[in-house]
Amino acid sequence: MDRPEGDIWIFGYGSLMWRPNFPFTEAAPALLRGYHRSLCIYSTEYRGTWERPGLVLGLDRGGSCRGQAMKVADKDADEVIAYLHERELVNRVYVAKWLPVALSKGGVRAYAFVADRGHEKFVSRLSEAEIVKLILQGRGKMGTCLDYVQNLVHHLDELSIADGPLHRLVRQAEEAEV
Fold first, then answer.
1. CB 100 within 8 A of CB 38
2. Domain count for the chain
3. Residue 135 maps to which CATH number?
4. What is the band of 169 on the pLDDT scale with cuts at 50, 70, 90?
5. Phi, psi (5° rounding) for residue 47?
6. Most buried among 34, 138, 160, 168, using CB within 10 Å?
7. What's the CA angle centered on 98, arms 166 and 53, to 5 degrees?
């Protein structure tokens, strides 16, 4: 996929916001319209197994998503994109896209990873009860799905990003776990 000339922007909506592991020159709150943050990807390795999957984040169609945009210098852009492909496209459950995002100083096109709705690990239309069940059952080589979602909400809170549905799911999972 061709990248724009010059410096580029990367849109983070999950761990890329607090653990980017790439050089950037600027970070700014960003709003992506047309997609929302969702627990819509079965995790069968890191936060679950094939027998007892957990869920991890993806950007799914509809709504909007508050996140963070990170500006990458032109000299680092190709290397950062290669790193992100290695990190995010391992299972091909995400599709990389250049999308318009709004910053306080205007709009930019940012590189983002959206859920591939045709992938076997993509899941939608789950009830909150079904999501909570998957959060509670998921345990993989990186830990539990509950730890993952609690950590996600903690970091969103630190960045002052409100995500009511995720907060509600964490509360329900914590109450059901007791």
1. no
2. 1
3. 3.10.490.10
4. very high
5. -125, 20
6. 138
7. 35
